TrEMBL record:
One of its GO terms (molecular function) is metal ion binding. Transmembrane segments: none annotated. This is Monodechloroaminopyrrolnitrin synthase PrnB. It comes from the Bacteria. GO terms for biological process: L-tryptophan catabolic process to kynurenine.
Amino acid sequence: MNEPRYRISEIRQADPLAADPLLAVLPAMNRDADVPALTVALRTLLPLPAAADEWSVVESLAAMRDLGMFLGSLKRHGTEPLDAVPEALPVLETLGRRTDMVPRDTVHHYTTWNPIGLRRRTYTGEAMEADLQDAVRMVFPSLAASLDTCAALARLEPHDPGFAVSLDRTAQHVQSMVDSIDFTVANVSPVFFARTLRPYFEEIDVAGRDYLGPAAAQVPLWLIDLTLWQCDHSSPEYDEFLAESVPYSLPSWRDFHAAHTGGASAVSKLAAAVDWENADRLSPQLAASAVSLARVLRILKTFRARHIGIARKAYSDDLRLYEVGSGGAPIELLRSVLDLTRDNETLVRRATGRSRTPVASHA
């Protein structure tokens, strides 16, 4: 594949900074809260900006991944990384420019592009941290595939046979997210996340602008929301959150967002088709589209309900160290987006549930 950001095994294998030895002892530095050692390590790893400017996208992504582990570690221990190591600024800016991404590490660096096995990069060395990374890794193949199915959906109308097919494929992609969150519930305790891991995902200041840490909240479920319902059935709060979240995604995913913002959602197209048909019975194809759309919205609703369950525990009064989630959003926004998803599912059910039954096919 030509897209270098999808060359995952190459990015995982790359070590342009020769950072493996220092990253192997990073958990020990963090256990000791050894800010001087972390500072020296970050400074030691820095390449010359001119050298970084010659790297491939694959090498640049791997370098940002490894520098990012020290950025997050320093901030966790109360030190603004670029105050401690100001010479890192031109390197981060160069790597951001080379990769066409924000000038720090993201959830993609921390999970998908992170090596597995003995070279895995972690802040803590704890098994629960590795499990959380693996849970997030699980969803990215489905999210990447959802770009094609959602793009096809945006081009189709509910009477087209491919409309229901695209929705069914999208439902499979969303189901992988439900599986991921179930894996997280089973393997990562709220106490570990809230007290041990969450502090490593704090924002850092890069040239006067704050950039969020590589949190799972950056996983772009909005890729699917966008064409199903969000582009014309959203809320100002969710739109504002997306405006802050989209820049952390891959360039092609940002392009997808720009191309489909302001379009007609699957929910709107189905409602309009049902109103236009205005019959006692729906055609078989329209009925199939309605069933498929309701199904994928129901799976989305399930994911969001479980996500709220995790978040409520991790940010409960007796556990939380922070008022907002690692993606910058309060718990109330999660509830709001769940309500929006539920409202759109209800819209679909109401549009197709007025005592209508599919007409018999004459094929």
